[in-house]
What we know:
CATH architecture: Irregular
CATH class: Few Secondary Structures
Structural class: mainly beta
Distance between the termini: 22 Å
Shape: globular
Largest sheet: 8 strands, antiparallel
Number of helices: 3
Amino acid sequence: MASQATGTLGATLSVSATPLVDVFASADNINDFQSLIYVAVGLVENLGEFGRTYQLVTFVSISDARTLKLKGPYDDGTMQMTVAYDLSDAGQTILFNAVNTVDQNTYPFKIVFVGTNAYFDTVYFGAKIMSYRIQAGAANSVLRALVQLDVNTQVYVGDV
Length: 160
């Protein structure tokens, strides 16, 4: 089967209103995410990017001056998302309320892509909801909110 590119059009992002109790105990496989109830986040304009990145660890031997490179600790990313500001939307309200609560909760998220391989159409992860910032812009702008999600669990790819 030939490879094919897939667009983002039609993708949905959903959040569970119930935070993960213990991120290290309650989100250790994809089944823990699939069994949750999610609320769609409306009016998403841009999902941003996320995914694992390793820190570079280097060592330089004084005998040959060669720099050896190793993979160090990893980070599953920070997702900078843009939505049209609408606090009447249930999903956006969850994001807004989580930002305005001083806690250490990690919330479950689900992204569903359209037109991909049937098994790889859904992404699950837990994230800290770090910001929900209103972007007013100019007179000809749409009122937006910039949302920052810091991924705090493994990213799982699977089916719905």
